[in-house]
Amino acid sequence: MKRVLLTGGAGYIGSHTAVALLKNGYEVVIYDNLINSSILVIDRIKKITGKNLTFYKADVLDTDFLKEVLIKEKIDTVIHFAALKSVSESLEKPLEYYKNNLGGTLSLLEAMRASKVKKIIFSSSATVYGDPKKTPITEDFPKGICTNPYGWSKSFIEQILVDINGSDKEFKVVLLRYFNPIGADKSGEIGEDPRGIPNNLMPYICQVALGKLPYLHVYGDDYDTKDGTGIRDYIHVVDLAYGHVLAVEKIDELKSLEIINLATGRGYSVLEVVAAFEKASGKKIPYKIEARRPGDVDKSFADASYAKKVLGWQAKYGIDQMCEDTWRWQLKNPNGYESEDK
Ligand code: NAD
Ligand code: UFG
Fold first, then answer.
1. Phi first, then psi: what are they for 339, rounded to 5°?
2. Which among 50, 231, 321, 338 is least surrounded, fewest beta carbons within 10 Å?
3. How far apart are CA 97 and CA 310, in angstroms?
4. CB 54 within 8 Å of CB 28
5. pLDDT tens per residue, range 323-334
6. What's the pLDDT score for residue 118?
7. What is the pLDDT of residues 187-227, one digit of tens each?
8. Ligand 2 centroid vs 219 CA: distance in angstroms?
9. Could you tell which of 296, 297, 300, 322 is best to mutate to test the pocket of ligand 2, judged by most ligand atoms within 8 Å of the CB?
10. How far apart are CA 3 and CA 290, in angstroms?
11. How far apart are CA 243 and CA 263, in angstroms?
């Protein structure tokens, strides 16, 4: 069975992908420096799946060690999740973001070349489309202007991977453009655990529901949408994780370079998400309408038909399930992983 290396595999999406891969019979090696995750995740993944995995606490910037691991672990495919991901922090610390995200990817690519590992699946983002001219967004839309260094780091890395694939067609690249992942494994053992005050909608709503924050700031109600609030294509992280399993499974049959949106194809407004969360949790979410958040687009949702065509993948879970599973994780872990390492 294929052995898969997950850089950043202890993080939110990586941990769910590790569970999905293990459940589908793959062997998993996680390589993560825990800069934004907890060591507790590793045991939780083992607990959910009843399977073992190998973990290295190490930095992707350490090319020599990464090369050693790729060879020693006989890795077939790399899924590259490792990155810093806060939009607001990236505006304050662009150098750190470019060094970690771009530098980390260059280091990984060098290590892959040296160890002759030739398959990579990359965690990209809908952010690379910038402000799309229309919706739904298909993969052939031009890439757009990003509004922050985090977004640019994703866009630049995509280009680097396209160029490397151009120079060596045997180097297989799958760019997975995620829309808005939310939700958690149904066990409630793993989930999203942001540090400090959350930037993103669902973690912020959870903190309000737990009584840790007084109300939700709704950024703008004057967008050109049904209720004036921003629309996004929220996708259950378990569906997203399974998309990676199919990408690993089918990578040999895919084109040498593939770009695939992972999304449900359906958009929800901020107020619709609030209503769905209230229904799932039984908690009232007070909110205040405020000015638009700089850099936000009004609508972002995908046409997800290409993922169905090439991977046979389709999202199974709807917004109600996403909210229920998020809330179960939060109730079970009101302070996240509570690890000293975090
Ligand atoms: P996360 O922060 O939970 O996970 C990222 C992991 O990478 C963390 O465990 C962190 O410790 C690790 N990491 C960071 N730098 C590292 C380094 N130099 N060496 C080793 N490990 C390192 O984030 P996530 O939400 O799971 O996102 C995973 C990937 O998906 C990221 O690349 C992110 O940019 C991308 N993505 C996320 C979203 C989202 O909304 N969550 C949307 C689109 C794309
Ligand atoms: N929002 C609020 N209040 C909040 C947080 C968000 O009203 O406290 C609104 C935003 O204005 C937006 C929607 O909720 O309309 C979703 O916002 P998120 O911050 O949850 O998600 P974004 O779509 O802005 O960004 C996310 C990731 C980025 C990624 C992008 C595209 O955070 O990393 O999706 O994939 F680049």
1. -90, 150
2. 50
3. 32
4. yes
5. 999 999 999 999
6. 98
7. 999 999 998 899 999 999 999 999 999 999 999 999 999 99
8. 10
9. 296
10. 48
11. 10
Q: pTM of the full predicted structure?
A: 0.98
Task: Considering only CA atoms, give the Rg of the chain.
Answer: 19
* Residues 243-263 pLDDT 10s: 999 999 999 999 999 999 999
H or E segment and range at residue 220: none
For tokens 């630049």, what's the residue?
156
Q: H or E element: which one contains 123?
A: strand 119-125
Give per-residue pLDDT as tens, 278-300.
999 999 999 999 999 999 999 99
Give the CA distances from residue 194 to residues 122, 133, 199, 232, 338, in Å, rounded to whole numbers and listed in that order.
21, 31, 9, 20, 11
CB of 127 within 6 A of ligand 2: the answer is: yes
- 206 token code pair: 């959870």
> Distance from the CA of 81 to the center of ligand 1, in angstroms?
5
User: Ligand 1 within 6 A of 9 CB?
Assistant: no
> Among positive and negative, which fits the CA dihedral 46, 100, 184, 203?
positive
Q: Which of 102, 105, 108 is nearest to 90 (CA)?
A: 102
Which of 31, 150, 317, 337 is an active site residue? 150
Quickly list DSSP for 86-120. -HHHHHH-HHHHIIIIIIHHHHHHHHHHHHT--EE
27, β-bridge pairs: 3
Catalytic site includes residue 150: yes
- Report residue 203 as tokens: 């973690």
Atom of ligand 2 nearest to the CA of 297: 15
